[in-house]
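Weekly sync notes, structure subgroup
Attendees: PM, AL, DS (notes)

Item 1: joint prediction request from the bench team. They want all two components modeled as one assembly rather than separately. Inputs as received:
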Amino acid sequence: MKIFKKIIIIILLFIVILALFFIYAGTNKEFGRKFLHKNHSDQNYSGGDLYNYSGLNRFKENRIRIPLENSTICNGSDMIIKGDSFFNTGWDSSPVPNYLQKISGKNIFYHSTTGSEITPLEYLEKFSCRNGETRFFIWETIERNSITRVVDLESDFSNRSKKGTVSIWAKIKNNLFYQDDIEFFIKNNLFFRAISLWFKNLAFEWFGIIDSKTPLYLDDPNMLFYENEINFNKNKHKLSYIDKIANNIAKEADVIKDRYNLTLVFLIIPNKFSIYGEQILGEDEYDDFIPKLQTALELRGVSYVDVYDAFKNYQREHPNELLYYAGDTHYLPVGKKILIDELINAGIGLDSKVIE
Amino acid sequence: MLFNSLFFLFVFFPIVGGFYYLLPHKFRWAWLLLASCYFYMSFIPGYILILAITITIDYFAAIFIGRSKGHSKRFLLILSILANIGMLFIFKYFNFFNTNIISLAEFFHWNYSIENLKLILPIGLSFHTFQSLSYIIEVYRGRQKVERHFGIFAVYVLFFPQLVAGPIERPQNLLHQFYEKHYFRLEQFMSGMRLIIWGLFKKVVIADRASVFVDQIFNNVNDFTGPYFALATFLFAFQIYCDFSGYSDMARGIARTLGFELMVNFRSPYFSRSISEFWTRWHISLSTWFRDYVYVPLGGNRVSSFRWTYNLFIVFLLSGIWHGANWTYVVWGAMNGFYLIFSIWTKKIRSKIAGILKLKHTFLEKALQLIVTFLLIEASWIFFRAQSLGDAWYILKQIFIEGYKITSLQPFIQRYNYSIGIIFAAIILLILVDYFIAEDKRAKKLQKISMPLQVFAYSFLVFIIILLGQFSNEHFIYFQF
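Output from the run, pasted for the record:
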């Protein structure tokens, strides 16, 4: 019994030391990264965002990231782009803004704002863009986040300014009580992540249990779906609400035109679930949120690029080819190519002559 | 910070526990106070000020109450109660009453312009307010010595294992434990760990897994019909039980690893054979709080039968509104009050009928009592969980009148067959364990199981928790109360 007690005490002391290690590694990212699982320690590699949630090997795809080259000067550019991760990341192909710049020979301003949800107006303020010759401003958003991003615009347009600075109290609060980094490190360190992946695959094989962030999947084609996209699509959007969103976008377009002489072009990337969700048994039909919003924008004179229609057409014509990664919310290079073709054909100065 | 978060399990708890035993006894209260403040501040840091105010008021109120006599003593008690309840009212009930007044004003075309407050309800406010109140009342009654050590009193209110969701402790049980020197005892530690593991199992395997279906159905009532509501209500009964009793078990387990003993909060409630028995097994720390500080002062059962009925009903109404500022909780409380009163009124008749049918003391009678009690409690859970009275009424109508004709559960079960299977298997395990601990005799048998078998059983439980647990950091339902 004494030996048993000693063993337990040694284990407990080890756990205390491990806890201190977790704090240190979670708060010192340079140090912590050395102990992270490959998916998180190597920033140029990913098995897919949905794969990271589910941990299921059957949805793992090894991909290489081509990094984004941010522009530095907004003034004098031929075109300004604001986008989300669909434009920032270059999985197996260049990020969209870099690719567009390369093939069109145009001076395109683009800067990643990942991690901070800012409105187009705030984006232009942030990068000190000035009123110049008539140019286009492409505003890209993924469908699942489109509403929250547009609802943000409801504040007074004439008085809207840069977001406030962080107070000292908020800084102390964040440093002292912010546990997400430590929690992330515990979850994704080499040892815990390996155990967790083993359990996740076992739970899926034995009981069909899957992570709540990826509650639905397809077997043929092999595909995972993101909880946020499923919830977005299940929430059938009323026309009156779509009108309200379109009004907000139109107001933003007016203010941008007025202050910066920019013509806003709205670009909404369809949720993976909007394209493939109907193939899951028992799932409702897509409520045509994007087509309805685009019609509402047209009525208000706002330009848009219709990627949804292009994706649906491609899917119909090439039923065996996928547009999105199996274990990721983002599109494959073929999806990106379709989007770029649509941009070229949109008559916003990226015409084929220039490209040639 | 949740008990089921990785930060709590792998960082906060080991560090707090480890250093607690390494520190000399005289510093331990300060360490626990510091840890408890950090624990609370990890939700909304600023709200620690609310607790600081409550603690300061009650600390001095108790000292003055201890020194006073007669009317001034009573006056101080009332003042302290008003301060505590006032805080609770502002944060929890103001908007509820104000919204109802606004609706009334609109109906009668009155001119009423007070707007709702934009406040977030501090986590566990009702719990620590009631715990602090119990101290003041016990001091007033002369059953508890005035605590002169401010730090010890603060840690009594703030003690992190039971700070945000109870059990609501009494000063006689908890305060003296902060003065006692706790040595690390392996058996006590292991017993605490067993409680934590069992609580975690209830929370992440049953409650959080059940919540996936329950939330989907109760939050979208228009999309579902009778059979779904019946299933969701059944699952909710176990979700809320496992969520809350799971938290209580973990709280008791964490406290026990540090050498503290907290009161038992649940004792196999679904094995109750009457409503009155249910309330001696469910949320015991709250039921006994209302018994000691509301029901007994109102006269308890030593009054006329009309007054007794009134006392019972008031206690259940208050219990309902304690749970939340919503009419659904009021109706839930009223339903339970009505059940109890009705069972008292019909006790003789029921006994006679059982005699005539020769059912008395038979297994069938016991089984019937158990099933009827469970079904009655189930019906009241509909009001507890529904988002509005309209929703609750719709659900009841669907279950009892319309639903079964229209649809079946097949498509739902088809999609979630594994998950539902897991929940039902886990519920059967829960019922088995609850059956053993429902009676002391059986519970003792369970304790006699050999150490290697216990280690195996709990290791298996840990395996099941990791394999089948739903780890999405779901909040505990009772945090909101």
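Discussion: The first helix of chain B runs from residue 6 to 22.
Action: AL to compare against the crosslinking data before next sync.
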